Structures are given as C-alpha cells and as structure tokens.
Input
Amino acid sequence: MTGSQEADLRLISHWAKYACVRACGFLEEAVTIHLLSFAHRTADQRVARFVDKQLRDFQSPKTGHIRDLLSHFCQRWAEDFDVWANEKRAGSINSIVTNRHLVAHGDYSEITLARLRQYWGDAKELSQWLGRELGGPT
Output
C-alpha cells in the first residue's frame, strides 16, 4: 500500500468517526424534538416548559434510556418501543451511541462508513416511529 492510499484510509476512518458522532446527535435531537412537540401540542404551557427544561440534558440515547424516557410519559409508548426495538434496531442504535462515546473519549472505535450506513437506516426509522407514535411530524 502506498503512502497516499494509507492516508486515504485514515481520512475515511476519520470521516466515519465524525459521521458517527453526528448520527448520535441526530438520535438525541430526534427523541427530544418529538417529545417536546408532543408536550407543546398537548400540555399546559407550564408543563411544556418543564418538559423542555428536563429534556435539554438528554444524552446517550441508547434504547434503554429512550425506553425509560418514554415510560415517564406513557407506559404504552415504552411497551410499543420494546416491540419496535427488535434486536437489529436496538443493536444499531446502541452501536451508534457506544462508538460515539469511544470516539469522543479518544478510545479505539471500529466504526466504518459501511457499518454506519447500516445503523443510520435504523436511526432514521426511530425518528419516523417516534413521529407516528407521538402523533407529530415524521
């Protein structure tokens, strides 16, 4: 392998890590936006403001964390989420978050663009599912 090929592979690896961090941010935003949209549509303004403040610090959107958050709003949402989050989808969502943490803390991550592309489909599906489940935009 030539020096330029090695440099290209390193650059692709860095882009995969960057894209993983961005995908995790997308997950955090998707969960937050859908729940805030629900609160602002259905709750008193004071309650909606409280929900807004509580969700500002939502991070690490692993499926267990998302489920717990949904259960605080509605137990049925959490149960429906359990059904939606099959092994493949949960694996994708959790892998995005795990690799994001590895990247952010300077640890070794085996994330690749090909793997992330697979995970990304499930991340988008999560946002769409939340939109349908909570009656908001998809």
